[in-house]
Amino acid sequence: MLNIVIFGAPGSGKGTQSERIIEKFGLNHISTGDVLRAEIKNETALGKTAKGYIDQGQLLPDELIINILASVLDGMKESKGVIFDGFPRTIPQAEALKVMLNERGQDVSVMLDLDVPEEELVTRLLKRGEECGRADDNMETIKKRLLVYNTQTSPLKEYYKKEGKYQYIKGLGTMEGIFSDIVSAVESL
Ligand code: AP5
């Protein structure tokens, strides 16, 4: 089983590269951000809760997001593995993922850390906000999302280094070039 955590700051290209990885390696995809946006669109109770956090650029509580992840994972059809996009974002989430995978006789295969300078992240997100109208792609919320990333999520790099699963990927450059580096990293596992 190939279980990939795709990691990086908001706008680092997690979703963009996930699409390519899924196609190449035949994996299932879990994007917690996409799950939450679908709940918001469908105006569910969970969606209403999620909107409050997302609009403020804050993370949802660990317990809530871990339960969502567990239920999506349970409902997935068999595949060659899963790409986890936007999860984990905190140490408790990483520990919960480890337990969930261990219960299935599996583990995280690799954590791909897409490294992109902050100035480029802001440029990409503002452009996407203009083009797609994603509600959290405005300057005020982007600043909060980056702060949350730097304080709460970035420590996961050390966590996965200690686990021997960390892989640096330069996330600046063409989408094709970055994907090629990802393929090399995954194929060398
Ligand atoms: P989520 O949807 O996960 O958002 P995010 O982490 O902020 O990431 P983005 O989707 O903004 O960026 P991305 O890295 O996927 O980049 P993309 O490929 O789209 O989460 C949203 C919110 O949900 C969170 O803030 C939180 O509130 C909540 N949430 C989600 N998961 C949670 C969790 N586990 N715990 C708690 N709360 C959670 O690319 C961005 C743009 O750049 C695109 O327009 C793309 O075309 C462009 N681009 C990509 N690659 C390149 C390139 N190489 N060159 C130029 N442009 C590029």
UniProtKB/TrEMBL annotation:
It catalyses: AMP + ATP = 2 ADP. PROSITE patterns: ADENYLATE_KINASE. InterPro entries: Adenylat/UMP-CMP_kin, Adenylat_kinase_CS, P-loop_NTPase. Keywords: ATP-binding, Cytoplasm, Kinase, Nucleotide biosynthesis, Nucleotide-binding, Transferase. This is Adenylate kinase. Consists of three domains, a large central CORE domain and two small peripheral domains, NMPbind and LID, which undergo movements during catalysis. The LID domain closes over the site of phosphoryl transfer upon ATP binding. Assembling and dissambling the active center during each catalytic cycle provides an effective means to prevent ATP hydrolysis. It comes from Bacteroides sedimenti. It is an enzyme of class 2 (transferase). Monomer. AMP binds at residues 32, 37, 58-60, 86-89, 93, 134, 145. Residues 31-60 are annotated as: NMP. Its EC number is 2.7.4.3. Catalyzes the reversible transfer of the terminal phosphate group between ATP and AMP. Plays an important role in cellular energy homeostasis and in adenine nucleotide metabolism.
